[in-house]
Amino acid sequence: MNLKTKINLGFLAMLLLVLSIGGYAWYSLRQLDRSSRDALTANVYSLELGHRMLRSLDQLAGQPIQDTTGTAQLMKLVQQEAHNITEPGEQQLADALVRGTQQLVLAQQAAQNVQLQSVAASPLVELRALTYHVISLNTEALTRKTEAANQRTDQANRNLLVFITLATLLALALAGSVPEIAVQPLRKLTAALGHATERNFSATIPQESRDEFGQVARAFNQMLAQLREYRTSTTAELITERNRAASIVDTLDEGLLLLDENRRILLANPVMCELLALPATRLVGQSATQVRLENDLLHTLLLPLDAPNQAAAVAAAPLLHIAQRGEEAFYQLAAQDLVSYNEATDKTELVGQMLTLRNVSDFKKLDQVKSDFLATVSHELKTPLSSINLNARLLQDERLPADERQRVTTHIRQETQRLQRMVAELLAVSRLDAGAGIQLDIRPTGLAEIVAYATDTVRPQLTDKKLRLELELPPTLPAVRADVEKTTWVLINLLANAIRYSPSGEVLTVTAAAAGGFVQVQVVDHGPGIAAEHHERIFQRFAQIPDKAGYRGGSGLGLSIAREFITTQGGRLWVESELGSGSRFCFTLPVVTG
After folding, report:
1. DSSP assignment of 59-90, as one string?
2. Could you tell me which residue ranges the PAS domain spans (predicted)?
């Protein structure tokens, strides 16, 4: 049964009770009114007739016998009484009155015949006695009916009092139960909501009925279950996000220091702790103003924050030179104000500051490499240009012998080729940096052709330095998929480097052999060799590895471009070398299949 039906039944019961009380009261009053009307109609009227008959008898006793007016009036009253019979025995009295009145009339007629002056007294006495008897009978009946009416009135009053008492008790019961029916579930709902606001989603509402509150309880319990699931998932997500954020902060390669509006340290990541040489337990929760007194680096970091123009002070702050793990490192300071909008004051307020130390060592080194590269390129361009200029002046002398002119011309050609190679390297790097990529013309070719062209190109350099070149190319070497021009350029670069670093009179060896689905080419020299820690560095752009004599080599671009060319063709380029044992540069190219 739903709540609406319960309340309607309660009000219906009250309505029925009120209608019952009203109906009973109306019935009781109707009965009393009917009894009163009957008494007034019958008994009171009979009493009135009896008194009028007595007055008529009194008049007859004093009137002459010839006057029949009183007798006629008496007869009329007696007849009216005969027609108003209401009580037991009243009919016999009415009949007796009629007979007595008739006898009186006869006696009056007889008296007139004998000319008497008055009627005899005996009939009047008898009629008077009968009249008194009628009056007495109706008086007793009226008294009896009045007592019965009083009894019925008392009974009705008692019944009404019982009904009113029952109605009051029922009304009190309904007034106490119906609101309680509505309020008690609300109390349970209010208590459950109070627990829910305190994030206690386990306090469900007992589902004790199937009415509206039962449906509300079922819906509320389902909501709590969903909230529990949502809270569990949200908590897991928050923990995941917090762990992710903490992992990101902890793995940053930048030092991060978070301060609140009172410069209390809220967060310091591992990099910042390492730079400050203080554990997180001695930083987090501490006042940065106090910690700076014991830590020079933190004092330096906070100095720009104390300046009137903080942004300008931070921008003008020099790079911090910090020794880290035995190496020189450079860090750049950045400061960011943390603000939050306050809805209460409708203003944006400062809630903290974030300081970061960014490791710019690579950029510093790159800047240094760029400076070294410019200096090297300037030197590399200046030397051949100066040589070409000097040799051009020698050619202007007509006294120079023909054989000497030939030697000078050859030297000019070599320096020109050197300049062309450097310019080609710079152009290749600019194309790669611009994202143009490497345009390849890959087709099946034999390595013998590539090796022949490359060795012919560097043969004058071999002759000048008195180096001997040995080739080990098996006749059964399979064809490879390669760009002839780019691969020849790579081999020329490797041979030029080997010639540059090899002592006079040594032997250079070029070998090729099949290795699985590739052909591996090796250029072996007997130069000073390369330390293992520099094996990868020499393939980086602008890399300069000085030898024991301090010679820094060329532009530092050749090997970087060579690796790009080989890698793009599907091969690999590396070096095998040790200090004092020469170097072996190797690259592979895929074999033609099918």
Report:
1. HHHHS-TT--HHHHHHHHHHHHHHT---STTH
2. 241-287
Other beta carbons within 10 angstroms of residue 242's beta carbon come to 10
Q: What is the pTM of this model?
A: 0.40
Instruction: With residue 402 as reference, give the H or E element that holds it.
Output: helix 402-433
Among 247, 293, 288, smallest CA distance to 270 is for 247
At residue 544 the predicted structure's pLDDT band, cuts being 50, 70 and 90, is: low
| Residue 65 buriedness (CB in 10 A; 0-12 / 13-18 / 19+) | buried
Torsion of CA 314, 318, 319, 323, to 10 degrees: -120
Q: Which helix (H) or strand (E) holds 218?
A: helix 212-251
Q: How far apart are CA 278 and CA 53, in angstroms?
A: 137
Q: How confident is the model at residue 549 (pLDDT cuts 50, 70, 90)?
A: very low
Q: Which two tokens stand for residue 281?
A: 């337990």
Kind and range of the H or E element at 509? Answer: strand 507-515
CA-nearest of 328, 350, 324 to 339 is: 350
Question: Which secondary structure element, helix H or strand E, spans residue 481, and what is its range?
Answer: strand 480-483
Give, in order, the Cα–Cα distances in Å from 510 to each of 104, 244, 480, 545, 587: 185, 54, 17, 24, 12
What would the mean pLDDT of 91-113 be, rounded to a whole number?
75
pLDDT tens sequence across 58-83: 777 766 655 667 777 778 887 887 88
> In whole angstroms, how large is the CA radius of gyration of the chain?
68
